[in-house]
């Protein structure tokens, strides 16, 4: 039996125990804190360690292909063992969940939610209103502003209502701002104007009075024109009673590219009473990766999560996947990769060890 399979089998026993309702923490070896960390044999999970610090740690999952094939068992077993949050990577996006004007297709995302609940994981709902991955029936249609508003309300109401009680928080609006801080063009902005953001948040709140409502974006991790603009938007919302509970810092970083103002930025949003969650963390490098790069990556992961740990508001950290075998970076940034904490053979990388160490 290979080391990977052996690791997967031992984890599978733990997952089976979780599914049977026992406590995963009781199934792992006692942690004396005296030994150097050896993740291949120390199966104390990231989620168990994070939970000791009052945090949730998660991964995005794209059910479409990541669950299929012979890797499925290893993938699911490690997912449930290591993580306490699951974000559907694509299955809740408009084009997948709302493929026809009167057609909602909830089954793929439902199966992720079922998996999460069976394994004691929370779900981040991702995402309700975005300018990308919109169904063609929507983008190819001709709509008045009133019709577009009604379509937004219909979509948000139906999806949020369907998952009421099953989702920790929603990325209500995703990536609405450009790097200059202005609202970017796109279907919703072009048809409705700037009020679409507020309409989405008010509609989500009406559909679920208790779910967390988040604004999620990239390049808002540090202090800059874009995060300044979001800060002003949040203050305006709060002044006018528009509901918002948190912001999601996507955190798709390049190696060595962690903003020095990450901590001060988290601090200013937290001071507004918001949660500040790390929602899509990955740290990519030019391929092929070198040992030195993997060490820098480990330090970068550690810096991000340790900065987050400095703030009670930053109590959720989600990575955009967990194995380099399955990552959006391959397609989105050709020539780059190795962005996650397990390698393509599901072996823990230095970045995993550094997080394990930090959370211990
Ligand atoms: C990405 C997915 O990972 C890809 O599989 C898909 O093809 C495109 O979208 N910001 C977001 C995520 O908010 O929804 C994006 O996910 C990555 C960038």
> Helical segment tally?
16
**Main beta sheet, described?**
8 strands, parallel, barrel
Instruction: Please state the average pLDDT score.
Output: 90
Which distinct ligands sit in these coordinates?
A: (3S,4R)-3-hydroxy-2-oxopiperidin-4-yl beta-D-xylopyranoside
Overview in brief:
With 360 residues, the protein is an alpha/beta fold.
Essential attributes:
10 strands, 8-stranded parallel β-barrel, binds (3S,4R)-3-hydroxy-2-oxopiperidin-4-yl beta-D-xylopyranoside, disordered N terminus, about 350 residues
Write structural notes for this entry.
The chain is an alpha/beta fold. It has helices spanning 3-19, 24-27, 46-52, 63-66, 72-82, 94-97, 107-118, 136-139, 145-162, 187-192, 195-207, 225-240, 262-270, 291-309, 329-332, 350-359; strands at residues 56-61, 85-88, 122-129, 169-174, 212-217, 246-249, 252-254, 275-286, 316-319, 336-337. An 8-stranded parallel beta barrel has the order 1-2-3-4-5-6-8-9, surrounded by 6 helices. Strand 8, helix 14 (291-309) and strand 9 form a beta-alpha-beta unit. Helix 1 packs across helix 5 and helix 9 packs parallel to helix 11 (195-207). The longest helix has 19 residues, at 291-309. It is globular and about 55 Å long. The relative contact order is 0.12. Mean pLDDT is 90; it is low at 1-40. Bound molecules: (3S,4R)-3-hydroxy-2-oxopiperidin-4-yl beta-D-xylopyranoside. (3S,4R)-3-hydroxy-2-oxopiperidin-4-yl beta-D-xylopyranoside (XIL) binds next to loops.
